[in-house]
Amino acid sequence: MIKIKELTRLYQINKTVIEYGLIELLPKEHVPLAYRFMCACLFWISNKHQGMSLPERLRLSLQSLGPIYIKLGQMLSTRRDLLPPIYADQLAYLQDNVPPFCGEQAIEQIEKSFNKPIDSIFDDFDKVALASASIAQVHTATLKEDGRAVVVKVTRPGIEKRIQADLQLMKWLASLMQRFLKEAERLRPVEVIHEYEKTIIDEIDLMREGANTIQLRRNFLNSKLLYVPEIYPNYCTKNALVMERIYGIPVSDTNALQAQNTNLKLLAERGVETFFTQVFRDSFFHADMHPGNVFVSYEHPEDPLWIGIDCGIMGTLNKEDKRYLAENFLAFFNRDYRQVAQLHVDSGWVPADTPVEEFEFSIRAVCEPIFEKPLAEISFAQVLINLFNTARRYNMKVQPQLVLLQKTLFYVEGLGRQLYPQLDLWDTAKPFLENWMKEQVSPKTLFKSISQKAPFWLEKLPELPELVYYNLSQAKSQNKQLILLAESFNKQQKNNRKSYFYIAAAISLSLISALAYLQTDKNLTLLAGIPGIFAWLLAWRYTNKV
Prior knowledge:
This protein has helices spanning 4-19, 33-41, 54-65, 67-77, 85-91, 103-114, 159-180, 184-187, 189-203, 206-219, 254-259, 264-282, 319-333, 337-346, 356-371, 380-392, 400-419, 425-440, 443-460, 464-518, 522-543, and strands spanning 122-123, 131-132, 136-143, 149-155, 226-227, 231-236, 240-244, 248-250, 285-286, 294-297, 306-308, 314-315. With 546 residues, it is an alpha+beta fold. The strands form three sheets. Strands 1, 2, 3, 4, 6 and 7 form a six-stranded antiparallel β-sheet that branches. Strands 5-11-10-8 form a four-stranded mixed β-sheet. A hairpin with a 5-residue loop joins β3 and β4.
């Protein structure tokens, strides 16, 4: 049941849509009749920003609605191959140009988090935020204990309550979809919202972000692909986090990158390699790689190094998902649509009774025209979108565990194409995936797997005779139970057959008795009625008899 709080938020969202005239994003013929009726009912609300361009209105509306909607705008800003440049440029302001909150509030939040006066922790704390995002903002400072330059990240006051209100509304809308929308079984909106809830709640906990950053830094220590700033664990709380200050060029500032002669082709290719390394080598990937969170080191522009910050949202995959993903990607690269269709069935992404040949033909019909273009011009994201639209006809279910991965892949391709428009994502990723697949079946991997499990096997070896005896005993016991269940079932079947016989007899005798009574034949009434009563009693007895 929706609460007053959720209804209020729903009203605010509709009010924002009307006030910013966002309905203009849809052609008039595609505006739902129900929405027009709702606007007529809310006659006191009107478009108050007609003097602004539609892209600017879209950006300001998302900004006013709060962190969940700002995140949506951040993701869309990287999809320059899907959005017109004027929209992408406006939404790019949401990456790190969200209006900051007051510096005094930030100090109050930090002092409350560390339970100390700010002067006892930092020197030169700058009250003016260095950057501000949807959930938190950062301030520069110098750590008092050793003079290191740091940044202090602090969450927005009251952010958790606002996010919870939006999540409750999303859950309510998702439950309505689940109940009334035909495609809900495939889209699984309730599961997707629960998955997103975990992600966003984790992001507002800066202690979790600190732990994620430490893990990601360890995975890429001394790597040429990615640098992750150091976290100072003694200064980590839920609402405040202190980390090393990094110096780099925002990845969106292509003019600055070109000015220092950065090898943009290599930089774009390393971005793709970094993504696949995180996913397939580490099973732990940065899932919020919008341009506001990614920088390029000033050092060695001919051998560029990515710098990643803000590890609040991290994704993980299990072995089965990784293998199916790698096989799917390789099948696409090789245009083996039969394999793509079969993998979707084997993984359970589409129902087991899906006709593979028909599914293969549908995938081929959608993908072949795309692959006629040069590989460098093909958007992998667009291929995925077309595939999902095709799979929708075969009741493909949304995989919540892959939502973050899909979003991150869109980010990576968007960034890569922004840096180097000729980026051949396919050619860059294919060798990596082929090598990974070979490693999964190599003797080295087999030996590593055995080595990891050997201590456990050795620990359990002395218990093996007891386990064998226990399982054999259990098997005997289970066989006895099965025999007893079979006997009980057979007995119940016999009782059911007797019950059905007596019910039929009782009904027949009751009808005869009723007809005889109507014809005033007392003898026949008694002759049929008394056995009929006994037949009903016997039917009841065998129906309840176990």
